[in-house]
Amino acid sequence: MEKEIQQANTSLDFYNMKAARIEDQLRFCSDQVQKLGEERFQKSVSLENTQKRLSDMRRSSHQAKESLEDSQFKIERSRAALLELQIEIERERFKKKRIEEELEVARRKVVLLQAKTEGNSMIERLQEELREYREILKCSICLDRPKEVVITKCYHLFCNPCVHKVTENRHRKCPVCAASFGANDVKPVYI
Ligand SMILES: [Zn+2]
Ligand SMILES: [Zn+2]
Q1: 166 CA to middle of ligand 1, Å?
Q2: 86, 115, 135, 141: which could join 162 in a potential S-S bond, CB 3.0 to 4.6 Å?
Q3: CATH number for region 139-191
Q4: For residue 129, how far is its CA from the centre of ligand 2 (angstroms)?
């Protein structure tokens, strides 16, 4: 009986010891669980922060994309405006060239007209001179035939037929100055 009690005591000690070890292990486990819980909390906070940062980045990336698109649109518009401006400049250049060509044609016309005017005035001058020479060379009575004879009393010149008509009269007088002359006063001249 005593032996049985001793055995039971030993067994109780063993179980007590085991229970103490299990309690230790349980405490350790509960510590671990608490630690894990804290870690989990920290991680969830960190995850939340990361998610928030990610969302911020996503937003700023979206804004950057929008701004880039806006810039690209502006660039496209500027390019179109530039192209239009270049076309306009080209058109203006063409117009200027046409005007310069027209101006050159007009300038040439002016030169031609000036030459023509000068030519006309020269022709008029020559006609005037021709008239003067004709008056000098043609008979002053008929204004048609050349001067062929001279009345040596006054030295006036006439054509032969006109003087012949005068010499048929009794009173022979020069048709220009009315000087009397005889048949022998009429002499041929060679101009
Ligand atoms: Zn005559
Ligand atoms: Zn005369």
Answers
A1: 11
A2: 141
A3: 3.30.40.10
A4: 25
Q: Which ligand has its closest atom nearest to the C-alpha of 158?
A: 1
Task: For the chain, give the secondary structure using H, E and C.
Answer: CHHHHHHHHHHHHHHHHHHHHHHHHHHHHHHHHHHHHHHHHHHHHHHHHHHHHHHHHHHHHHHHHHHHHHHHHHHHHHHHHHHHHHHHHHHHHHHHHHHHHHHHHHHHHHHHHHHHHHHHHHHHHHHHHHHHHHHHHECCCCCCCECCEEECCCCEEECHHHHHHHHCCCCCECCCCCCECCHHHEEECCC
pLDDT along the chain (191 residues), means of 10: 88 90 93 94 94 96 96 96 96 96 95 92 93 91 94 95 90 92 93 82
- What separation in Å is there between the alpha carbon of 146 and the centre of ligand 1? 7
Ligand positioned closest to the Cα atom of 172: 2
Ligand at minimal distance from the CA of 186 is: 2
**Domain limits of the chain?**
139-191
